Amino acid sequence: MFTRLDHVGIACADLEQSILFYRNTLGLEVFHQERNEEQGVVEAMLRLNGTDDGQSSYIQLLAPTRLDSPVGKFLRSHGPGLHHLALGCPDVDAVSAAVGDKRMNVLFRPPRPASMGSRATFLHPHECGGVLIEIVTAAG
Amino acid sequence: MFTRLDHVGIACADLEQSILFYRNTLGLEVFHQERNEEQGVVEAMLRLNGTDDGQSSYIQLLAPTRLDSPVGKFLRSHGPGLHHLALGCPDVDAVSAAVGDKRMNVLFRPPRPASMGSRATFLHPHECGGVLIEIVTAAG
Predict the structure, then answer these.
(1) CB contact, 8 Å: B59 with chain A?
(2) Which ipTM did the prediction report?
(3) Which of A117, B61, B71, B121 has the most CB atoms at less than 10 Å from its CB?
(4) Residue range B4-137, CATH number
């Protein structure tokens, strides 16, 4: 079903400050940056390594563009920190169907556009031991 | 400095229940299980993929063996969920020194024994935008 640990999403108040921390303190560089108006976030992907399914693993830094976006609400209730865990698979539609068949509430069906042209859906932390789980298929 | 996203640590109240969730709902199997009395945890590593530095990426499920352990305290204050992000490197001693030179407070110097014979240290969430960051070198 899943073939890689795709990324870990981290909520931060100020994207540029977070990018500086990861670059200056940990030596990690921005691989890609984008703005997603629908989700109300700006984000930076920091690439860590290649994976044996032909893709990569990243840290994803997420900052809200508006207070009422999901990441804005998360920051207000939790403060900055670990936000979600993204598991990569070759076919997010098939995995969504398989997980839905187990009576899990799959949040977006069909999956919606996500980082770097990927397609993704989510499982709610209430059903996953407190962890927001993203299910993602890379572009191409 | 870092060559892979080594694992994501998840705090859970009941290890066996969490293992069942990840197996039955997400199809992920236990690769390794151990008990660390010093840290007061039982843990299960679920392997996701190989990485291009010759190692692997995992989900690490962590449950406390006593209420006053670090994971026990985390559960009491935060509830179950994402606990830490572990970045892999070939030489945890060298990375600890390099990060310490940037005036970061490296929690364990020398690093201490961690999962599957690895050696690891940590950076405090107060200094890392709310994220507990583990720096780890695999065994061998």
Answers:
(1) yes
(2) 0.97
(3) B61
(4) 3.10.180.10
